[in-house]
Amino acid sequence: MSDQRFANAIAALSAAGAAGTNLCLPILGAFPVSHAAISTLGSPFGSETVSASDPDAARLDELQIDFGAGPCWDALRTRTTVVDADLEQASDVGWPWLRNAFRENGVRAVYAFPLVIGPLDVGALDLYALEPSPLNTAQVACASALAEAATAHVVRQVVRKLPLDGHDDDHPSTYSRREVHQATGMIIAQTRLNAHDALTLLRAHAFALGRPVRDVATDVVARRIVFTPNDDPGRD
């Protein structure tokens, strides 16, 4: 990547962050990839897609968030870049089922870059390529720098959405996972499980149905899916 191209990407990212618009498009245009997504992961901001270059990118991001595993989680946990440059090749990563899901969605390479500020773990930037496409050292360094630049914008966007009066936001983001939190609370009430086990049950049920966790959570909130005390999901 040329210095000028990198400078252009930084400038476009800063402009997008200031305007509160899509953070992924400036990054996407700087690399030989087809999709980009940015998410917050775990504490303190919760797990949610903050920005995506397109619906496919959002769906790929949701796969990782739904199951709490994948390159984005590994990147944040280790605070280092995670590269899987050829999903057709054997790998000893801890999420082989996710690699299969990526391939089923046409992805052949994925790269994850941590978003951190000092001691604060924020989330990750994921880049997806439709062809095996290893990034060179310079490209990885530039992507890491763009991820670092995006982090402050992500935090500002997330903080702006936090309700000031203690009530839920009446206008959640496009990728809000509020339904997942609500559904988890309902499952706790229905099954008397703890929060961790209730969320695990929700994820497992979504996996069994082959549906996104958010979709199943919406059905739980609407009481189209009810979980019984013995943890067997049922319907009204």
Q: Your description of this structure?
A:
The protein is an alpha+beta fold and 236 residues long. 49% of the residues lie in helices and 16% in strands. It is built from nine helices and seven strands; from the N terminus they run ααββααβαββααααββ. The protein has helices spanning 3-19, 24-28, 55-67, 71-78, 96-104, 137-161, 178-191, 195-209, 213-221, and strands spanning 35-40, 48-52, 82-84, 109-117, 120-129, 226-227, 233-234. A five-stranded antiparallel beta sheet has the order 2-1-5-4-3. Strands 6-7 form a two-stranded antiparallel ribbon. A hairpin with a 2-residue loop joins strand 4 and strand 5 (120-129). Helix 7 (178-191) packs across helix 8 (195-209) and helix 8 packs across helix 9. Mean pLDDT is 84; it is low at 163-171 and 231-236.
Oligomer: single chain
Categorize the overall geometry. globular
> Main β-sheet: number of strands, strand sense, barrel status?
5 strands, antiparallel
What is the number of beta strands? 7
Number of separate helices:
9
Low-confidence stretches are 163-171, 231-236
Strand share of the residues? 15-25%
Q: From N to C, what is the helix and strand string? A: HHEEHHEHEEHHHHEE
What is the CA-atom radius of gyration, in angstroms? 18 Å
Strand order, biggest sheet? 2-1-5-4-3
Question: Helix coverage percent of residues?
Answer: 40-55%
- What's the N-to-C terminus distance? 57 Å
Return the structural class. alpha+beta
Taking all residues together, what is the mean pLDDT? 84
